[in-house]
Amino acid sequence: xxxxxxxxxxxxxxxxxxxxxxxxxxxxxxxxxxxxxxxxxxxxxxxxxxxxxxxxxxxxxxxxxxxxxxxxxxxxxxxxxxxxxxxxxxxxxxxxxxxxxxxxxxxxxxxxxxxxxxxxxxxxxxxxxxxxxxxxxxxxxxxxxxxxxxxxxxxxxxxxxxxxxxxxxxxxxxxxxxxxxxxxxxxxxxxxxxxxxxxxxxxxxxxxxxxxxxxxxxxxxxxxxxxxxxxxxxxxxxxxxxxxxxxxxxxxxxxxxxxxxxxxxxxxxxxxxxxxxxxxxxxxxxxxxxxxxxxxxxxxxxxxxxxxxxxxxxxxxxxxxxxxxxxxxxxxxxxxxxxxxxxxxxxxxxxxxxxxxxxxxxxxxxxxxxxxxxxxxxxxxxxxxxxxxxxxxxx
Length: 395
Known about the structure:
Blueprint: H1 4-34, H2 38-63, H3 68-81, H4 83-91, H5 96-124, H6 130-158, H7 160-178, H8 204-230, H9 238-255, H10 257-263, H11 266-285, H12 289-315, H13 323-352, H14 354-361, H15 363-376, H16 383-388
Helix pairs in contact: 1-2, 1-5, 1-6, 1-7, 1-8, 2-5, 2-13, 3-5, 3-7, 4-7, 5-13, 6-7, 6-9, 6-10, 6-12, 8-12, 8-13, 8-14, 8-15, 9-12, 11-12, 11-14, 11-15, 12-13, 13-14
């Protein structure tokens, strides 16, 4: 499973998520600098997600027609160049309109990068070790998700020019590595464009479950740094929260992919959705330094298990020529969930405050569990179902 090319695609995915989330987690501060509130920063996150979703649908179709490498190249170049646009807004053209436009362009670049990277990764992983391989690949997403806010906060404290310069350098390194990476050759069938090809039906159960689940995660990702800085009951930095998350994410991604291959995703669904609910309720009801760190551990373990197992489920039935749309369907829903969660959180913060916001968003975790029970656990895409029914007999 491991090779130089697989390692490079993991690094490219890590770089894309790291730079994206460094900018996302510090974006409320950037919007405040421009003179606007959390509602505006939340709406910018929602616009980002909408554009990413529309882009992913078309990107998935193009990936299934053999354009994996070209789309990845376009995405990496875009993600290297666009931070310089934010720097221009910060230093010269102070404009919320230009900022929104840059966020939309960034959404296209990000969607191009991580959708094509995920598809290239699934092309490279043996079927018998698929969940394990997706866990290793997903570790790059998880670590970036956990580390980016702390790194972004530290660089932002040195100045936004330092933050945006660093993101450009990281993606430039990825661009250099791109040119020494080889991608698997996949035979493609030529088909005319069809709206049906934009969504992979077999990926829908896992994707809808993930969509609702990550609404709660989006609230944390977008506002934990700001929450820690304004709370009178927490003296720790939001970066510490994400460091504890990172430790749990690393632990889960290294060790639990094999469990999914043997037992399926259900064992994680039944434990991790309640854990994320508990994390949010701790932040809402009993805030303090100790509960802050416990919530970080619960969130890290939950997200570390759920994201790769749901993605493995979404892609499990897809043949090579449909992996692009399967990954696109899953990642579209992931973006929608993050966008709705971050946007809703921004509005709720302005209306009812941070503590109540975390309490409200916790509802999404158990709602996701209900969705999985209704449409996911007995669907043929469920790895648990496949293990229990090796002959494919639905009865």
